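Checklist before submission:
- one chain only
- standard amino acids only
- sequence pasted in full

Submission:
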Amino acid sequence: MSYQPPDNVSDTPASKGRQSSDEAAHNETTVLVRGETITEQAPHSPPKATESASRKEVSEAMLKMRDRVPNLDDDADVGVLKDQIVVRDGKADLAFTGTLLASAAPSSAPKGQWQEYRIYATNGGKHVFSKVTRSVSAEAEDTHEAEVFDPSPSSVPSQLLRSARDLARSHPMTWMDAAAAFFGYDPLAKALYRKLSGQFEEHIN
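Returned file contents:
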């Protein structure tokens, strides 16, 4: 008596493991082990970091400003009498009619950050000192510092304070003394002073 194999047994048991999709065949590998089909996923390479993610985002407007230093947007306003607004962080902005006497910025900003110094003279005989720190980073905000020098303060406490300072000095405090106290004597401050007057220099015998 001859043996007949069952009708439901496939002649090709390994065929059930074949991929019908060309796309799946690209991503998977089929291996036959003792009549069993084992599917292994092809290794995936990690996603490449985009160039924009690997560096900080920068502001295009600030890049243009950086590329112009030491030239500033208001260089043409030096010596021009006009209404001025000087921004201050944490305090009221200063609004006055006056003249931009001088401004200075570094010749380059290799780290993407730089400072701008300005000195103004008001119609009322006061002087305004401004220091702005800028950055090309889109996440960084500009910082603004400013002070006003009044040669004749009206309040009694201010007069007493000024008198005490004058007594400690060989001469009354001038706007140039106040400018040096505000800006100091770093290279940028010295570049600013050279645009104003030789009186910032210390003369010795």
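Reviewer check: Residues 1-42 form one domain.
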